[in-house]
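User: Fold this; tokens only.

Assistant: Input:
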Amino acid sequence: MQFFPATAVRLDGGAFADAVRTDLAYVRALDPDRLLAPFLTEAGLPPRAPGYPSWESEGLGGQTGGHYLSALSHLWAATGEHDLRARLEYMLDELARAQDAVGTGYVGGVPDGADVFAAVGSEGLPAALAFGQSPNWVPWYNLHKTFHGLLDAYSVAGIDRALDIVTRLADWWLAIAADVDDEAFETMLATEFGGMNEVFSRLAELTGRDEDAAMALRFSHRAILDPLLEGRDALTGLHANTQIPKAVGYAISPDDSIRAAADVFWRTVVDRRSTAIGGNSVREHFHALDDFSPMIEDREGPETCNTYNMLRLTRALAERELRPEHLDYAERALFNHVLSAQHPEHGGFVYFTPMRPRHYRVYSTVDECFWCCVGSGIENQARHGEWVFGVEDGALAVNLFVPATLDAPSFGGRVRIETGFPADDSVAVVLDLDAPRAFALRLRVPEWAPGLSDLAVDGEPLAGDAIPGAVVLDREWQPGARVTFRVPLTPRAEAMPDGSPWRAFLAGPIVLAARSSEDGLLGLEGDDERWSHIARGELLPLAGVPIVTEAAATELLTETAPLRYQLQTDAGDVELEPFAGIHDARYTVYWPVASDSDARRAELQEQDAALEVDAATLDRVSFGEQQPESDHAFEGPDSWIVSDGDRHARATRDRIAVTLRNPDGAGRTLRLGLVQSAEPTRLAVRVDGELVAFESFDAGEAEVELDVALGDAGRGEVVRLELSGAEGRSTPGIRSVRLLR
């Protein structure tokens, strides 16, 4: 499908238009000079304003600036607002100034970035092995945002000099990479690198240069690509949003087999790893396919960045070869996860959307929070209009039922969608043509709908030609022709992909949820603290969630108003409403299901056993998981990761260290989750440099939980924990550490 550019589409009202306006206000509140500060600093130039806090000052300086280039480009295309283009031009002026000051073509906000990348060329494998260590965090992931933003400034906003800047940046890397052998290059790719294969493929299309296409292939990461080429899902235990951008690059590859690998990835994630809202992952990682219990139990549910990139992957695949399920997924993700991930009033963005019943989301604040999901969020909310219309097999396609107007001179005029969908299932497509015109109109039929009801043209009923996922009307159209139909939103239930006894309820594509308490919403609006994107408030017991019988959704749900239902449960009727509209409150999307509610509640009480420990936890690190480690200032250059499916641990013969939050110095005990090794191991535990425990472990494979009393150590607001081997022995595998009251 060829989607119409955002410059040709205007949203005429409704939730998507509101989201664009809210995003516009958030983006306008950001100071370009503060976003540019890391770029100018790295170029040796004085910044015009201090940089922003949060991730922008903690190793990811510049990543938001790259997203900002993309957001300005897409918002300008979606709205035509002149000040957005002026900001974009200013950003490009300053980036070009920084690039000229460096003199090599490099421009970026990565701390000591030029030296970090150059070391890979001059030192090879040792530098690749150390790539991304603090304070650099994930250098390529960061720099990818600059590449991507510059390409959007050219391709979306049409500013020619953006292509010159990004081409010079690419040339800088091509020169370094010429001295990097394949082993070192592939080793470097073990650290998250965004969609560098995608940006070099995009650049190759624009420049026609073979060296850009060859670099896209080098960035393909064989460790991920090869299983996909074999049709295998080897994603369990991997950091989800590290992998999804790679698949976007695979989808636009000129190689048929690599594009097929992208399709394998998409089907795997959408069909087997995604929740009702279209989101995936727990604590940013793909968990086991046959066990979605972490999705129900954890406070760190689907990450918004994942869905942002899954939508980009969906679009790339649809542009090559459309399948009906591409638009079904896009509709699900946009109406549920994306819309819900922006606060409708202050515009704050959501990082994690917990699927745990009766938990809540946290929102960013404009001057303090610069998480990855803020950067992708300011792009995401700008791009709704791009999905509405397209051209497929020569037909003008209506893809989403959204109030919008398309300027389509190639079809003889303008096309307007009038609808109150999803609250109202009636849709009208009005053809404001300049003269009679013959063409095919393709109306999408969603997978959740049995068909389009009451289809008519100017009041005259007709059937049209049914094809997979659509109805096509091919005729000569008169100016002002009005095509009307209904898309009834039948209630339905969806199980978790693993078949476990949890159900979500939907009306058409709209996920329904129950709004519950507004109590205990700790940290509802984030600040510049490293962990403020996590909803750290109390986890409420699963045993307190009402239980639903195993009956059909039409038997359990009673409609009380448009998109408002009463759900029958063992605790009485519960009111359901669209999930995307619930903010500043706890909510429940998934409901426990059982024929025997007493037995089911006993099972839930067993799941609640961990709540006492969670309530006593001041801070926690899961080792071998990227974000928890980086959030806690992890150090461990001579350590390695031990994986067992979706469970990870770290071990070292030297030392690993993390910083733990210790509010009011209340920590009294460290609880270490360990896995023994096939060889005897040793573990020394130091807190703020003081030895608090030394343990010896015999060979074995058992899981061990070790509690260490702090005594007089670790009384500050933060503590530095160091775990080391001794006597020539490595540590056991260290899965996690909790600091307990």
